[in-house]
């Protein structure tokens, strides 16, 4: 090849130079100027940092895949991002004849994109496959209490549980969006892939899909609900966050969710772009392994709690877009349990550890390690905000004699180490809630089952009191009782400090001012239970 | 006949090397901590049953040699398995990514050669003069700037500010759209390699331009194109062929930074993402591909030597 090029070098060179010049001058598309004014029309181009792994939630359970499939597949039950209450979606009503049985009435008159009607068989199929070991669904953990799901009427489905589970509605909502049984069986070998695609009832239907480059969807004109204003939505993959910002600035994409909170101020300065933030129950925390020294010493834990400036961290790490957490429990989630009784007093009365180096020194002096110690704390390279947090707190900890060395690890390394559940010492953690209630996260972080491999009780904190309270919470059907149990758990955690809750982050949506978003966007409720693309319309 | 034997021998060695490499990569994947199921279930606390089901689906609990044999026996039938992350066939993924990267690599190579060969020849001819010093300085700048930075700069200037080029992606699979999308990343890539090829060409040209044969040709009054084209270029091309081979191998496998900046779904980003996610079938496929590219390109470079230089041809095929 190289020899040939030499012989015809001159001519080829001239030809290519001509082509390149033509490309440079001839192909300047009108819509690509750097000074982008409002350009809302009925198409929407959305930037995403990674492509959906699959359009089938069983094999693509993550935010990037959900951004695509939640517009195409609908759940039986969704969550209203403002009231945090369960709402009918494809199920119009449900009841519990006994605590292990749920009966759902399916909405009538709903059709799949191919015109076939939605039946109870489709619903039973969509749910059952999620706990079929052959399917090996990534959402299987949500169905651990499910025994069977049957179509008990043309528009009625009955769920039989092995154990009562108050999260059943949310497990079904997030874990089993509804797809057509016939289509899934016909396309079994590539369901959710670029050839097999998917068949749903949602406001948008898939036109084309490639995991590396993105998805194109178009409006379902036969949708049973309110039709979206946008006719065509394209999710474009832009792998780098800075390139994402430049693409938005150039008007090549109309919006994105993937704004890094740390540098959100840079995004806010862009012309023709609006950023909207909303509170999120996504918790950041530090976990201290209470089963080993020095963290088994409560004075050490309290000393570290006094050495952390949470307000300062929220400003530095999230540009102020975050809320300081005084408890593992998020106030909005607790409030959702009991909409009529204010839960603010519970949070006001909690033990808090104010940022005070002298108090930190006093606490450490009472411990078995008054002269301090050294600790190496790992963090994931794809979570740089955790690394920053560790750097900031290591400065304060230095003042009281504790030398903290942050250690960056690849996500694979970190997960392998974390899941082995040995020598955890201090860990930076982040955990979201998939249901609008506080119990699931407390169960993961304080339950005894979490002290084993792959468990999330990285503090290895198991107290009889809390185990009892967790059972009470799980078995109770009385919201006041649940709130009381939660309060007692919160008080013990605040007192014993197995975890230092840091802050809750925020959901953010960046939109070109040619478009507007109706309602509140939430990384938890909209992203997994709703259809975000149907909330967007061209601005007037 | 001798040529056929030579080629046959080289190809057999290539196959054995690929086998060895695939085994070494597989072993390294097995030794490194963590499993692909952890990368699949990262978001919510998983139950032991969910983990077990996924591990069973991908045969992750089978003994090491059994897993390797399962992979090898399919690979020999050109079935490299399916990606754990997306379920796509590895051969399809490689095919898609390769067609993108190959187009970009070719474009970048042409740009590099177009700039570096004349620059190198001119620098060689000037030897210590103003032209030589200017070219050396410029190419040093080009190689010192990290491709990531030049990429962002090009993106900001020509895409956002002037709006001449798109900001991301490989575009539609038409020739014109691809060229339009590839221009900025090709420039970013080419800049990194221009210094290398220019220096090689310059060094080779220095020797040849000062040689008796070239001096005599100039003295006889042969036109510039003949002196350059037939004498200087061909005789100084051996080192350039070596470096071009290296450049091709680099462009085809090591372009992850430029791909990240311009969101080009190429082989470079595939290497990084497959390893990060411990997507075993994909890592094996990509490693095999990368090894094959490097080995093949070296082989083709050797063949090119033999074609260019009769002395090399004689000694190898004696």
Short description:
Chain A is an alpha+beta fold and about 550 residues long. Chain A is built from 19 helices and 19 strands.
Write the layout of secondary structure elements.
The complex is a heterodimer of chains A (540) and B (318).
Chain A: H1 2-7, H2 9-26, E1 43-48, H3 63-69, E2 77-79, E3 86-88, E4 91-98, E5 101-106, H4 120-128, E6 146-153, E7 156-161, H5 168-175, H6 181-186, E8 204-210, E9 214-219, E10 232-237, H7 241-249, E11 255-256, H8 264-268, E12 273-288, H9 298-306, H10 310-318, E13 323-324, H11 331-337, H12 344-348, H13 357-366, E14 373-380, H14 384-399, E15 402-409, H15 411-420, E16 426-431, H16 439-446, H17 464-475, H18 479-496, E17 499-512, E18 515-517, H19 525-529, E19 536-538
Parallel strand pairs in A: 1-10, 1-11, 14-15
Antiparallel strand pairs in A: 2-3, 4-5, 5-7, 6-7, 8-9, 9-10, 11-17, 12-16, 12-17, 13-17, 18-19
Chain B: H1 2-31, H2 36-40, H3 48-57, H4 64-75, H5 90-126, H6 130-144, H7 147-161, H8 175-209, H9 212-219, H10 224-235, H11 237-253, H12 256-262, H13 267-276, H14 280-308, H15 310-316
Helix pairs in contact in B: 1-14, 5-6, 5-8, 5-11, 6-8, 7-8, 7-12, 8-10, 8-11, 8-12, 9-10, 11-14, 12-13, 13-14, 14-15
Proportion of residues in extended strands of chain B? under 5%
N-end to C-end Cα span of chain B? 12 Å
What integer value in Å does the Rg of chain A equal? 26 Å
Return the average pLDDT of chain B rounded to an integer: 88
Q: Ranges of chain B with pLDDT <50 over ≥5 residues?
A: none
Q: How would you sum up the global shape of chain A? A: globular
Mean pLDDT reading of chain A: 91
- Percent range of helical residues of chain A: 25-40%
Radius of gyration of chain B, in Å, reads: 24 Å
**Low-confidence runs of at least 5 consecutive residues of chain A:** 1-7, 21-38
Largest sheet of chain A: 9 strands, mixed
Structural class of chain A: alpha+beta
Count up the helices of chain A.
19
The shape of chain B, in one word, is globular
| Number of DSSP E strands of chain A | 19
Number of helices of chain B: 15
Which percent range fits the helix content of chain B?
A: over 70%
Structural class determined from secondary elements of chain B: mainly alpha
SSE succession of chain B: HHHHHHHHHHHHHHH
What is the total tally of β strands of chain B? 0
């Amino acid at each position: 090849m190289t020899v040939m090029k030499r012989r015809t070098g001159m001519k080829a060179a001239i030809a290519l130079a001509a082509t390149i010049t033509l490309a440079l001058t001839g192909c300047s598309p009108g819509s690509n100027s750097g000074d982008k004014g409002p350009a809302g029309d009925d198409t929407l181009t959305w930037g995403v940092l990674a492509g959906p792994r699959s359009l089938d939630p069983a094999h693509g359970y993550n935010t990037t895949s959900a951004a695509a499939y939640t517009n195409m597949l609908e759940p039986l039950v969704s969550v209203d991002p403002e009231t945090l209450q369960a709402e009918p979606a494809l199920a119009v009503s449900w009841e519990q004849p006994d605590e292990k049985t749920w009966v759902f009435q399916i909405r009538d008159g709903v059709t799949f994109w191919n015109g076939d009607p939605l039946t109870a068989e489709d619903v039973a199929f969509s749910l059952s496959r999620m706990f079929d070991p052959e399917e090996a669904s990534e959402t299987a953990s949500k169905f651990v209490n499910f025994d069977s799901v049957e179509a008990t009427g043309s528009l009625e489905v009955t769920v039989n549980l092995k154990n009562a589970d108050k999260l059943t509605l949310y497990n079904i909502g997030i874990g089993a969006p509804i797809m057509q049984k016939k289509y899934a069986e016909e396309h079994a070998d590539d369901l959710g892939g670029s050839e097999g695609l998917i068949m749903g009832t949602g406001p948008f239907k898939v036109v084309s899909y490639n995991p590396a480059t993105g998805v194109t969807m178009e409006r379902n004109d036969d949708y049973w609900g309110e039709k979206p204003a946008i006719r065509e939505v394209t999710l474009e993959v832009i792998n780098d966050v800075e390139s994402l910002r430049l693409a938005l600035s150039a008007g090549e994409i109309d919006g994105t969710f993937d704004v890094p909170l740390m540098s959100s101020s840079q995004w806010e300065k862009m012309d023709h772009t609006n950023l909207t933030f909303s509170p999120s129950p996504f918790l950041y925390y530090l976990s201290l392994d209470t089963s080993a020294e020095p963290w088994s010493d409560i004075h050490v834990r309290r000393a570290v709690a006094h050495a952390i400036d949470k307000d300062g961290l929220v400003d530095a790490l999230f540009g102020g877009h975050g809320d300081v957490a005084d408890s593992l429990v998020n106030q909005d989630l607790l409030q959702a349990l009991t909409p009529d009784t204010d839960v603010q007093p519970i949070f006001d009365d909690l033990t808090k550890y104010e940022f005070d180096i002298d108090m930190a020194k006093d606490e450490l002096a009472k411990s078995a390690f008054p002269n301090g110690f050294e600790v190496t704390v790992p963090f994931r390279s794809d979570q740089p905000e955790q690394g920053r947090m560790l750097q900031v707190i290591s400065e304060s900890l230095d003042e009281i004699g504790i030398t903290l060395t942050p250690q960056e690890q690849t996500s694979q390394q970190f997960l392998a180490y974390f899941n082995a559940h040995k020598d955890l010492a201090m860990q930076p953690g982040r955990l979201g809630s998939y249901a609008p209630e506080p119990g699931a996260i407390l169960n993961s972080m304080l339950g005894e089952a979490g002290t084993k491999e792959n468990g999330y009780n990285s503090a290895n904190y198991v107290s009889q009191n809390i185990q009892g309270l967790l059972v009470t919470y799980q078995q109770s059907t009385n919201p006041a009782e649940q709130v009381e149990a939660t309060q007692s758990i919160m008080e013990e955690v605040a007192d014993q400090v197995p975890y230092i809750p840091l802050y809750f982050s925020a959901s953010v949506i960046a939109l070109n001012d040619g478009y507007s978003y109706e309602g509140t966007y939430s990384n938890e409720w909209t992203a997994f239970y709703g259809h975000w693309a149907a909330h967007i319309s061209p601005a007037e | 006949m001798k040529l056929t034997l030579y080629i046959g021998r080289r190809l057999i060695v290539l196959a054995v090397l690929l086998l060895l490499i695939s085994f070494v990569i597989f072993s390294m994947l097995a030794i490194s901590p963590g499993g692909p199921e952890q990368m699949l279930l990262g978001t919510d606390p998983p139950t032991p049953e969910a983990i077990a089901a996924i591990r069973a689906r991908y045969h992750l609990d089978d003994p090491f040699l059994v897993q390797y044999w399962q992979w090898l026996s399919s690979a020999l039938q050109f079935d490299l398995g399916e990606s754990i992350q997306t379920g796509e066939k590895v051969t399809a993924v490689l095919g898609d990514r390769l067609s993108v990267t190959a187009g970009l690599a070719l474009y970048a190579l042409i740009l590099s050669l177009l700039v570096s060969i004349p620059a190198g020849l001119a620098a060689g001819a000037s030897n210590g003069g103003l032209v030589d010093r200017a070219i050396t300085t410029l190419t040093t700048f080009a190689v010192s700037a990290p491709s990531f930075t030049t990429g962002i700069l090009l993106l900001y200037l020509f895409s956002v500010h002037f709006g001449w080029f798109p900001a991301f992606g490989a575009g539609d699979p038409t020739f014109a759209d691809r060229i339009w999308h590839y221009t900025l990343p090709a420039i970013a890539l080419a800049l990194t390699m221009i210094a290398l090829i220019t220096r090689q060409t310059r060094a080779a040209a220095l020797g040849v331009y000062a040689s008796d044969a070239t001096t005599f040709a100039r003295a006889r009054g042969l036109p510039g194109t003949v002196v350059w084209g037939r004498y200087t270029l061909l005789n100084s091309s051996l080192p350039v062929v070596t470096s071009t081979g290296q450049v091709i191998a680099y462009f085809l496998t090591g372009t992850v930074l430029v791909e990240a900046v311009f969101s080009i779904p190429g082989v470079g980003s595939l290497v990084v993402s497959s390893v990060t996610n411990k997507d075993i079938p994909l890592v094996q496929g990509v490693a095999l591909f990368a090894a094959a590219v490097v080995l093949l390109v070296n082989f083709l470079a050797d063949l090119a030597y033999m074609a260019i230089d009769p002395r090399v041809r004689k000694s190898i095929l004696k």
